[in-house]
């Protein structure tokens, strides 16, 4: 039997990790300290060993003395237990840890991911949608054209519940979702993102495993790979504008429709990402 399997047999997940009872742990640590002190009076080294083994038991099982969790819940006053209960904060911290871990495990190299999945291919030195994926994306452009602003459609982009989506009064498409503003430079950009997301979900099972924020970045990168504007079918062109800010002048490179004028994407000249048109 391996060391790992032994630990797993001893571990009690219902009393450890996020389920650990802090008062129960404190009581057991005190018991361990008292017991090791008494043993240490007679045999000092044995006292150290007792303390070490006791702490390991508390760490793995959540308790040292069997029945402590039940006795704590039954006899420890509610007012005292309430001081240790911070489940709301613990839940938020746990969700944050889970998101970080999920991002670490499922983050992809976008270029390799899109190539491996047959979404993007090089064409004359330029990244382009593959023919089959382009056709699927076009289908989703038409399918989502009339439902573009529905909460359920927008919530899907960020793995959120529809009732968490709130519209905002701005000159461009924007929503507030989970206390964060999400925005697009135009209706065409929003339609491109919605269609791309739906097409990717239908194309590969791996898409929904990619972290939410990375999916958003990939969708933005893919806005300009289509042959024409999602909103009107016009040709997408690249322009360069000089914008003045408090820090001086800087050039913005933009991809926009030559017909309706909808802007799909814009980048600062120092942005490392590259436009593909």
From TrEMBL:
Where would I find the DUF8054 domain in this sequence?
7-86, 109-224, 227-266
Q: Which UniProt keywords apply?
A: Membrane, Transmembrane, Transmembrane helix
Q: Which domain of life is it from?
A: Archaea
**Stretches that traverse the bilayer:** 21-39, 45-64
Q: Does the keyword Cell membrane apply?
A: no
Pfam families in UniProt:
DUF8054_C (PF26237), DUF8054_M (PF26238), DUF8054_N (PF26236)
Q: What is this protein called?
A: Uncharacterized protein
Origin species: Halomicrobium mukohataei (strain ATCC 700874 / DSM 12286 / JCM 9738 / NCIMB 13541)
């Amino acid at each position: 039997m391996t060391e790992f399997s032994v630990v797993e047999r001893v571990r009690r997940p219902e009393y450890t990790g996020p389920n650990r009872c802090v008062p129960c742990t404190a009581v057991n640590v005190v018991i361990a300290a008292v017991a090791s002190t008494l043993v240490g009076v007679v045999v000092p080294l044995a006292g150290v060993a007792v303390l070490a083994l006791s702490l390991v038991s508390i760490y793995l099982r959540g308790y040292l003395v069997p029945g402590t969790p039940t006795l704590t819940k039954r006899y420890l006053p509610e007012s005292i237990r309430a001081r240790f209960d911070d489940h709301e904060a613990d839940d938020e911290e746990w969700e944050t840890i889970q998101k970080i871990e999920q991002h670490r495990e499922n983050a992809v190299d976008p270029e390799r991911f899109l190539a491996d999945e047959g979404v993007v291919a090089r064409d004359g030195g330029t990244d382009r949608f593959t023919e089959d994926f382009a056709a699927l994306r076009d289908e989703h452009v038409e399918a989502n054209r009339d439902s573009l602003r529905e909460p359920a459609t927008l919530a899907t982009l960020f793995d959120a519940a529809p009732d968490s989506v709130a519209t905002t009064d701005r000159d461009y498409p924007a929503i507030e979702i989970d206390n964060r503003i999400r925005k697009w430079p135009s209706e065409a950009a929003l339609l491109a993102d919605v269609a791309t997301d739906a097409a990717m979900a239908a194309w590969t099972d791996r898409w929904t495993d990619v972290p939410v924020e990375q999916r958003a970045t990939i969708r933005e990168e893919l806005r300009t790979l289509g042959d024409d504007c999602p909103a009107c079918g016009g040709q997408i062109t690249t322009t360069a504008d000089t914008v003045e800010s408090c820090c001086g002048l800087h050039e913005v490179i933009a991809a926009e429709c030559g017909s309706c004028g909808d802007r799909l994407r814009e980048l600062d000249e120092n942005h490392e990402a590259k436009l593909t048109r």
